[in-house]
Amino acid sequence: MPVSCGLCEKRAMLKRPKTGGALCKECFFKVFEEEVHQTITSASLFKRGETVAIAASGGKDSTVLAHLMKLLNERHNYGLTLFLLSVDEGITGYRDDSLETVKRNQQQYELPLKVVSYKELYGWTMDEIVRQIGLKNNCTFCGVFRRQALDRGAMMLRVDKIVTGHNADDVAETVIMNVLRGDIARLQRCTAIVTGTEGAIPRCKPFKYTYEKEIVMYAYFKKLDYFSTECIYSPNAYRGHARTYLKDLESIRSTSIIDIIHSGECMSVSVKKDVKMPTQGTCDRCGYISSNELCKACVLLEGLNKGLPKLGIGKPHKARMALGLANTTNTSTTSGSQRKEGCRSCSCRGRQNAVVNDSPECKKDNGLSSLSKGDGDPTSTDSSMKKEVGSKSSTVGVGGDSVAACSCNGGVQKEPCADTVGAKGQSVLCGKDDENTPCACKKGKRQVGTRTTGDSRAMLDLDF
Amino acid sequence: MECGGQVSEADMLPQRLPTAKKKNCVRCGKAAVLVVQTSAAFCRECFLNYFTHKFRSGLGKTRVVQPGERVLLAFSGGPSSAALLDMVKRGMEEGTQKKRLRIEPGVVFIDEGCIIQGFDVDQRQQALQIVSKIAEDSGFPVYRVMLEDFMSEHSTEADLPVTVSNCAETSQDTTEDVERQVKTLSTDDSSADRLKRLFEQAKSLTAKEDLLQMLRSKLLVKVARMHGYTKVMVGDSGTRLSVRIMADIAQGRGSALPLNTGFADDRHGDVVIVRPMRDFIAKEISMYNTICQLESVFLPTLSTRAAEKASIGHLTEAFISGLQVNFPSTVSTVFRTGAKLCVSQDPENMPEGHERCAMCKAPLDTGQQGPLQSSVYKTSGASEDDNKCVATGPEPSPSLCHGCSLTVADFGDFSALSDQLLHD
Hints:
The structure holds two protein chains of two kinds. Chain A is α/β, with parallel strands linked by helices. Chain A contains 16 helices and ten strands. Chain A has helices at 25-42, 60-75, 95-109, 118-122, 126-133, 138-157, 168-181, 184-190, 212-221, 239-252, 256-268, 296-305, 318-323, 382-397, 425-430, 456-460; strands at 14-15, 22-23, 51-55, 81-88, 113-117, 161-163, 194-195, 203-204, 281-282, 289-290. In chain A, strands 5-4-3-6-8-7 form a six-stranded mixed sheet. In chain A, strands 1-2 form a two-stranded antiparallel ribbon. Chain A has a two-stranded antiparallel sheet with strand order 9-10. In chain A, helix 3 links the parallel strand 4 and strand 5 (113-117). Chain A is globular and about 70 Å long. The model of chain A is unreliable at 317-464 (pLDDT under 50). By secondary structure, chain B is α/β, with parallel strands linked by helices. Chain B has one domain (3-11, 49-351): HUPs (Rossmann fold, 3-Layer(aba) Sandwich), CATH 3.40.50.620. Chain B is 43% helix and 9% strand. The chains are: A alpha/beta, B alpha/beta. The interface between A and B is large, with 71 and 68 residues. Chain B: Pathway: tRNA modification; 5-methoxycarbonylmethyl-2-thiouridine-tRNA biosynthesis.
């Protein structure tokens, strides 16, 4: 006997992932759109007359987002001016295809489109970056750059808000990740529906309570035009564990995703008062938001331009922080190549052309080591990497800053990590599984830290 | 090479020489026997010192347990509680006048046999005997309680069928006691049967485990109250608590996290549940047990031998344990994250009038539900049929927290238990 729709008498076409109820197509559309509308209105995301940039990558989330924003804007008369904002990282075979989708979206939804590219903003495309640094840690670069790119594009368009297509699965995954990583600062922020503080353009997530499965269903049944391939540079990463766990949870109990978000919201107000948190400032060089002297993008760029790709990758070091924030990344690297005997967990290990400072001790793990596929370093296991994360989180305030990873390095730097919640661009543009191993920030960005590189160890990791 | 290619010397991967050097204890320099937390190698004595010191400083630092206090030790038979028992015993014997652990302990064991199906009764009886023996070896008074006693109407000490035994009894008596316990199952039909039926009603194993957890702690508190104990010590290890943290988050119990997994759980008012073993991971505890040759017994529980995705708790345990293998700091990191949380003092989150969840007694978190609830599209007018569309989640009862309402929704008829649960 055919099951009939729960809301009307027609025959049911699908089972709703969120609640398991059976619905017909039209009712599903209605329910879906209505819920997003409820989310927007109850959280008061927009005000009349605002200009809003929709972060569009051509993937399913941003396509449905663009479609819905336009639809709801007209249906409920939000009074918003909408733009499409897309970021071109310069990944051939992936981004250029998805950009085509965005261009088609522009025509379909009749929204003005702006594309910002890494080449314009930074002088590097992702392809070039990957050629320099290899297949590991490239997601760090992509993520950090994209966040800034989105912000800069939004500033160029002079919009009031950015909306990203982060869905419930993303937020739940982020909560799990932040708990696993011990990142209490991010844990506080990640469930907020609007992120961004003074000085930055706020980013909203209207899909915060929308299941990914429902977005896919909506796009499929509405026959929306979207691009559905993973970024070609996405390796297996730590976030994959959280993702698998989340998917398993969803199969046990379908409300789990919402429950996790609920838990996250409750936890964000119940942090002990005496826990250290990072403070926000601005970058000395570009004026962007940063919790260190230089923002992460500037650090990474510097590394790229000087041929030290590992600059900015890796973990901070307590001693470094204690020494003070000295922007001596490159200047101090030439001061000698002593490496501590027996120090096996740092980038200074095994370097022929070690550009390392003399350091009293070098305990820091080379963040890469966790990714390195057994290149003979017994201590460079994920364990030590993880251990560092755990032990550092309270002092470093992993949430937003980074300190020089290894005391063998020159300077201590603090930069904001790749991103907090806002850069949805990540999963939308680059595929969900594009993380490196443990990083405190969202989307698996590499744990912040400065590290002088150009060591042979880094070369060892370039196993294509 | 099998594929027929030529292998030259240069192609061979460099052989890694096995590290022949033995590690030395980081404290005293002697030969080490074990490694703790991937880095520190200890010899036997130093490890024992480290372990005991951690336990005592954990207790002393928080100043939760006062000297002379009556403390009930919850003993489940497992390695953590066996270690707890041993440490308390030694803590009371050793040390100077000032440092000695001065409490008046008792041991309580909850027999959860009535809801565990499918396990050999004889094996269970044997296991119970071992449990009794270990408990009595400690020399403290032992209280044996059945889980279904929670269901019964007993309100005074005289009525509660708790068998008390102390060190004076011989092992003969204890066997009879245990047999009597098992037989009382058949005579005290109503409570056990009611409980069994209630558990069978549950639609999901997750809800069952959640309820069991709740019943367990409530029963512990009940027994403690009845016999004048002001503290209950449970042997939850750091690993178990980390799993609990993740599982609670997954079930929407984020607001009760500091209570469920913190050092002291004071939601029941007069009786405080304390978790002194939280600083230890399961591996350390089993190392300690091996070195001290402590006996422990495994009693099957609801999710024993269940599939990995049978329940949220079971899945989370597999998840955390799996991660711990490759990332040995997982447990401590999750644990530390949980430790940074405290009970929310935010008055905006608490709806008027109701402050505590009726079931789990944790602070209510329904104040946060605003945008969440509005986002779930309600379909009224749907028929009662379960197969039809139910577009909403569980109806949030005003007096239950989010996690408890999920559990209650999974049980059909809760009336059998509701009186007891909501009473306490």
